Amino acid sequence: MTRPALIPLCVLAALLAGCGAPASTDVTLTRPPVFRKGGAAPFTLQLHRGGAPASGYAVSAQFSMARMDHGQQAVTLKEAAPGTYTGEVALPMGGEWDVTVNATQNRDTLERTLTLRVNDGG
């Protein structure tokens, strides 16, 4: 086989190898937490892998204030429905927060950081 004929075969092999790549996982905060003086507030997030709900993951979230040091609040979430995970967090104040979501299932791990505005919830 000549070299020019190998080029299309290499391109085809690369494309086929990409077909087996893992599907992307999306994290969406569907119910953000609010600040409640002296109490915890519920929040909900959804995981989707390849467009379908990602079920069966061990999910945790770590909250840290974006522009101030108020420490970190770690929360373990529970799966309420396929791909829907809930938890509660007691934040010391409203404002801009970074939340790092970690999800694991067998050898599949994911980490995403979202920035959100936490409003006063009373």
N- to C-terminal distance:
74 Å
Please tally the helical runs, counting DSSP H or I stretches of 4 or more residues.
Answer: 1
Order of helical and strand elements: HEEEEEEEE
- Mean pLDDT over the residues: 83
> What structural category do the secondary elements indicate?
mainly beta
Counting DSSP E segments of at least 2 residues, the number of strands comes to 8
Query: What global shape is seen?
Result: elongated
CA-atom Rg in angstroms: 20 Å
**% residues in beta strands:** over 45%
The major pleated sheet works out as: 8 strands, antiparallel
Percent of residues in helical segments? 10-25%
Oligomer: single chain
Spans of at least 5 consecutive residues with low confidence: 8-21
Tell me about this structure:
By secondary structure, this protein is mainly beta. The chain has one helix at 3-19, and strands at 25-31, 41-49, 52-53, 58-65, 72-81, 84-89, 95-105, 108-118. The protein is elongated and about 40 Å long. The protein starts with a helix and ends with a strand. The relative contact order is 0.23.
